[in-house]
Amino acid sequence: GVLTLVPPVSTWEPVDEDPGTVFREVMGRIGKGRGERRLSFPREIVFLNGAPGAGKGQQTPFILGVRGLSSKPIVMSDLMDDPKLQGYKDRGDMIPTEVVVEALFRELLNPLNSNGVVVDGFPRTETQVEILKLLYDKMVELRKTNASANGYYPKPRFFIAILYVSERVSIQRQIKRGKEALRHNARVRDSGYGDIVPVRPTDLDEALVAKRYHTFRQHKNTLFKLRDHFPFTVIDAEDSIENVQQKIASQFMYQSSQELRQETFDMIQKIPLAYRIREDARPELVERLDGYQREHTALLQAAVDEVRLNFLPVIIRAAFAGEAVVRADHAGLWEDPLFVQICLDVLAERGFQCRYDTKTLVMPLRVHPRTHEVESEVKVTHVFFIRFPEASLTRTHLKKSPFD
User: 190 with 168: CB under 8 angstroms?
Assistant: First the structure.
C-alpha cells in the first residue's frame, strides 16, 4: 500500500507586518460587501493553542460542550488548506498576514458561529496578537455606536487557552501517534477493512518533532502578551484525558465568574483600558509638542530653557540616585498652567518620569491690634518629582572600599 503523508503546515505563518494597516485593509474589504452595520462577530471566542501532542483535537469537543457551543471549531490549518491559497505554497511563499486574518474574520462572521466558536491555532505572531486586540476594540466600538441593536452586537468575550505539555512528553506522544497510525494502516491494508488514516511526517522523525515543539514555544511566548488583556489560562495537559477535562472545566468556570454582566460592561466601557492609554500616550505627546511649536513657540522655548537651566543641574547632581526633586515659586511664567504642562511634556519627551504637585504654605505676617484678624501671605510652590535610570559606578575603577 501507499503511505499517506500529510505535509507539515508552516507556510501560513507569515513575517510580521503593521497590525493597524492589516486590520484596516481587511475590515475595509469585508465591510464593503456587508456594510459595517452587518459586522456581527460571535459573542464568545475561545482562542485555543497548544503544544504538539497536547490533545487539542481531543479536547476541543469538550471545550465546546463546557461553553455550551454547537458550532464547529475554526481550525486555522484547515482554513489555510483552501485551494485558492495553493499558489503561495507552490511558490514556497509565506501566506500574507492579511490573507490569514481575512480568512479567519470571514469565518467568524458566519451566522452559524454567532453564539460562539473555538479558534484553533490563532494568534501565532506579534502582528496577529495586536490584530486580536484591535478586533476586540472594534467589537466594543460597534456595540457602543449601535446601542439600539445591542442584541446584534453583544459584549465581546475572548478567552485565551493554552494546553501545555513538556518537550519530553510532546515528543513521546507524537512518535507514539505516528507508530499507531502506521500499525492501523497496516491492519487496514492486510484486512481490506477500514480507512487509511493520514500520517504526519512530523510524527515519524524526532528531529521534526523537536522542531515543532520549538515553534510552539515561540508562539507561546507571543501569546503571553495577551495575559493583561483577556482571560488567559495555561492548562497542564500531561495528565489523563479525564483529569485534563476537569481542569479545563474548572478554569473556564473560574474565568466566567470574572466576566461582567453586559449591563455593567456597557456602563463602564466608556472609560478606556489602561493599556490603551499607555499605547496612545506617545502619539498624543508628539501631537501636543508639535502644537506648542506651532501655536506657542515662545512659551515652548521658555519651557525648554527652564528645563535646561534649572532642572538639569539638579538632575545631574542626582544622577546616581535616579530621582530628583525640583521646586519653583509660583511667579512669572509659573503662573500660567500651560507653561507647567509644556515643562511636563518636555521632560516626558526626554525620557524622564515626572509626578507634579503644588504645595501651598500660609505664613502669618501680623495680627490686627483691634480686630485680632491674622494677616497672612500665601506662598505656592510647584514641585516636580522626577525619576530616571540611575547612573552606575564600575567597581573596577574604584579603590577597594573599607566596607567590602
Answer: no
Residue pair 391/320 in contact by the 8 Å Cβ criterion: yes
pTM of the model: 0.63
Phi, psi of 326 (to 5 degrees): -120, 135
**What b/e string do you get for 33-56 counting C-beta neighbours within 10 Å, with b at 16 or more?**
eeeeeebbbbbbbbbbbbbbbbbb
Give the SS3 label for residue 245.
helix
State the cell numbers at 394: 564600575
What are the residues whose beta carbons fall under 8 Å from the beta carbon of 311, sequence distance 6 or more? 326, 343, 347, 384, 386
Tens-digit pLDDT profile for residues 101-137? 999 999 999 999 999 999 999 998 899 999 999 999 9
Q: Quick one: which H or E segment has residue 392?
A: none
Rounded CA separation 6/247 (Å):
31
Distance CA 76, CA 12 (A): 9
Q: What is the pLDDT of residues 168-207, one digit of tens each?
A: 998 888 889 889 889 999 998 999 888 888 887 777 888 8
Distance CA 44, CA 39 (A): 15
- The three-state (H, E, C) secondary structure of 158-210, written as one string: EEEEEEECCHHHHHHHHHHHHHHHHHHHHHHHHHCCCCCCCECHHHCCHHHHH
Which secondary structure element, helix H or strand E, spans residue 325, and what is its range?
A: strand 323-329
